[in-house]
Every structure is written in C-alpha cells, then in structure tokens.
C-alpha cells in the first residue's frame, strides 16, 4: 500500500455514502468501524466482478486513518482488483471524503487490501469462477 494517495481515482466508486449523526463516535467524528464496514462491502463488490458466486472476507491489511471523516461528508469507496488466485481475490479499496456533501474539497481517508475467498454453500473454499 502507498503512504498516501494524492488524487482520487478517476473511476466510479463502488460505494458512495453520506455520513450521518448516527455514525459518530464520542468525539464527533465517524466511527472507524463504520468506514471498515463499507470497505468490506466495497471489496465484496470488487470481488464480484471476478467471481460469479459467494465470497467472504479472510483478511484486511493494516489500515491507517489519514484523516477524520465528519457528519455530512460524502464518502467514496473505490475498489480495484489487485490479484486473482485459485480461491482468493485481493481487492484494494481507497477511501475519499468529499467535505460537506457537495463541496469541492476531497480528502484522502484510508486504504486497505482486502482478501476475499470464494466459498460454496457450506462455506468451504472453492476455485474462483471467472465471469464470462
């Protein structure tokens, strides 16, 4: 992972979410867990571009929050497939916050490498089934 991501990706985000008061912690910023939950969902969406079945999260690399997220920020989660293995898919998720929902200021928030594993109905790993 890079130390910082200077510009938001030019691609469409996998998820965009407006942060609301219910998402805040005791100091008035957005809970890190709220961001991590959306990172997990964005990674699953990214993995679904490479596999036709179910995937589950196996790991997230170290995540450092570079900037806080505030109520009213529109947060974008950009997913990009980094690697497709036999049973796993690694997805990079970059997170950007647009301050005050509609303002021009974009702030880089965090990034994560998420490893998803393809599973069957019994939650056993299976080979990745590529989309045709």
Number of strands: 5
Radius of gyration over all CA atoms, rounded:
15 Å
The helix content, as a percent range, equals: 10-25%
**SS element count, helices:** 1
- CATH superfamily placement: Hotdog Thioesterase
Largest sheet: 5 strands, antiparallel
Q: Mean of residue pLDDT? A: 91
Briefly say what this structure is:
The protein is 13% helix and 36% strand. The protein has one helix spanning 32-48; strands at 15-18, 54-60, 74-84, 88-98, 106-119.
Explain how this protein is built.
- With 132 residues, the chain is mainly β.
- It has one domain: Hotdog Thioesterase (Thiol Ester Dehydrase, Chain A, Roll), CATH 3.10.129.
- 13% of the residues lie in helices and 36% in strands.
- It has one helix and five strands; from the N terminus they run βαββββ.
- A five-stranded antiparallel beta sheet has the order 1-3-4-5-2, covered by helices on one side.
- The chain is elongated.
- The mean pLDDT is 91.
List the helices and strands and how they pair.
Blueprint lengths: L14 E4 L13 H17 L5 E7 L13 E11 L3 E11 L7 E14 L13
